[in-house]
Design a protein that fits this description.
By secondary structure, this protein is an alpha+beta fold. It folds into 3 domains: 167 residues, no CATH class; 119 residues, Alpha-Beta Plaits (2-Layer Sandwich), CATH 3.30.70.260; 101 residues, 2-Layer Sandwich (Alpha-Beta Plaits), CATH 3.30.70.260. 29% of the residues lie in helices and 31% in strands. Helix 2 runs antiparallel to helix 8 and helix 4 packs antiparallel against helix 10. The longest helix is centred in the C-terminal third of the chain and has 17 residues. It is globular and about 60 Å long. It holds the Pfam family ACT. This is ACT domain-containing protein ACR. Keywords: Repeat. It comes from Hevea brasiliensis (Para rubber tree). One of its GO terms (molecular function) is amino acid binding.
Length: 443
């Protein structure tokens, strides 16, 4: 039951007053280090400050090489060593302003919306959230339903992990290009998508709801998969991850300091810090101190955390849960399989057609990123065969012929899980649907 006490309201208003009186101070230092730009953030402490800073740096496509975090008491001080995507120091002038806007009194807080299927109307589109049991052909069925209902998919992101799927899809009305806000139509969309998600096996995705508020897309995907308990590992999932890529997570209490120390070591990749901070925040832990080092192929992160009431982790079951949740947060963003890039003139039904071709040729989508840049569709899919194994070369040839393309180029993608065959390297395959030819985007 919710409790609206005067003390709670006064405490919340006092926190807002403190933040208004002490707006965040952000400094960008390009002189202290020869290899990276130092971004220093000082501000009155509030719930979620660390996550908001890390999210802004991530959204700016910055690579965090080192981080030193301290937020004991009413103040927090963070120092980040960052570079651009090419390993160079920053030259942008708006970094400090973007972070100050994010942390200021008008910043939008993150709210955990735990829905199996949710739909919300936004300014430019309608957002659909989906979670369910993953299976071959599921994404094709979802896009087919949306096409049949005269919905145009303008963007989407899909994650799969441990036999679960989470997706955030942005749609507009096919005829008007505007958000869909008619109640009866939204209800029909939700009902049909729920029917597809449940299939004949899934018992978890039994609810539909209209979302209230909005949140960061990748933040929301973490919340959805966490709420769906994708961290409950089964034997099959544990066996699919190689020892080389398996994260090492330890959790120990520091009795003399009253903290719980969380240490994490794994292969480095973009957005790793964002993923782990999201998980600790969703689990209702407060990070008091942290050190992050990611200057080589391996990343090291150390956190000193407590519960929101100031107490450390108190049981072995809770310790194991933290380990499993952090492992899941790292794995769920790491794609498995061959990377396919399809770029060309956007049109209604494009995704339905492409994913149908994948399904009919026995390909299963493990991750997808769909974006629209002006009139161009830029879509990325990671695929395996229906059993989760690497795709055979003859299958790729069949897909290429059916789409009608004549040129196929292959390139290693270091961010994806290495397949077991075909040269032991992930493939990057790019199709230009408009020019009926193909090209490779170098990553």
């Amino acid at each position: 039951m919710d409790c609206w006490s005067p003390s709670f309201i006064m405490g919340d208003e006092f926190e807002k007053l403190v933040i208004r009186m002490n707006p965040p101070r952000v400094t960008v230092d390009n002189d202290s280090s020869g290899k990276a730009t130092l971004i220093k953030v000082d501000s009155a402490n509030k719930r979620g400050s660390l996550l908001e800073v890390v999210q802004v740096l991530t959204d700016l496509d910055l690579i965090i090489k080192r981080a030193y975090i301290s937020s004991d008491g009413e103040w927090f001080m963070d120092v980040f060593h960052v570079t651009d995507q090419h390993g160079n120091k920053l030259s942008k002038d708006d970094v400090a302003e973007r972070i100050q806007q994010s942390l200021g009194p008008r910043a939008r807080s993150f709210r955990s919306l735990r829905r199996s299927v949710g739909v919300q109307a936004a300014t430019e589109n309608t957002t659909i959230e989906l979670t369910g049991r993953d299976r071959p052909g599921l994404l094709s069925e979802v896009f087919a339903v949306l096409t049949d209902l005269k919905c145009n998919v303008v963007a989407a992101e899909v994650w799969t992990h441990n036999s679960r799927m989470a997706s955030v899809v942005y749609i507009t009305d096919e005829a008007t290009g505007l958000p869909i806000d008619v109640h009866d139509r939204l209800t029909k969309i939700k009902q049909l998508l729920l029917y597809v998600l449940k299939g004949d096996r899934d018992k978890r995705s039994a609810n539909t709801a209209v979302s209230v508020g909005s949140t960061h897309k990748e933040r929301r995907l973490h919340q959805m998969m966490y709420a769906d308990r994708d961290y409950d590992m089964d034997d099959a999932d544990c066996g699919s991850t190689s020892e080389r890529s398996k994260p090492l997570v330890t959790v120990e209490n520091c009795a003399d300091k009253g903290y719980t120390a969380v240490n994490l070591r794994c292969p480095d990749r973009p957005k790793l810090l964002f993923d782990t901070v999201c998980t600790l925040t969703d689990m209702q832990y407060v990070v008091y101190h942290a050190t992050v080092i990611a200057e080589g192929p391996e990343a090291y992160q150390e956190y000193y955390i407590r519960h929101m009431d100031g107490s450390p982790i108190s049981s072995e079951a809770e310790r194991q849960r933290v380990i499993h949740c952090l492992e899941a947060a790292i794995r769920r963003r790491t794609p498995e399989g061959i990377r396919l890039e399809l770029c060309g003139e956007d049109r209604v039904g494009l995704l339905s057609e492409v994913t149908r071709i994948f399904r009919e040729n026995g390909l299963s989508v493990t991750r997808a990123e769909v974006t629209t840049r002006g009139s161009q569709a830029v879509n990325v899919f990671y695929v395996t065969d229906a059993s989760g194994h690497p795709v055979k070369s003859e299958t790729i040839e069949l897909v290429r012929k059916e789409i009608g393309l004549t040129i196929l180029r292959v390139k290693d993608d270091a961010q994806s899980t290495p397949p077991r065959k075909m040269g032991d390297s992930p493939w990057v395959i790019s199709f230009d649907l408009d020019q009926r030819s193909s090209f490779t985007t170098w990553v």
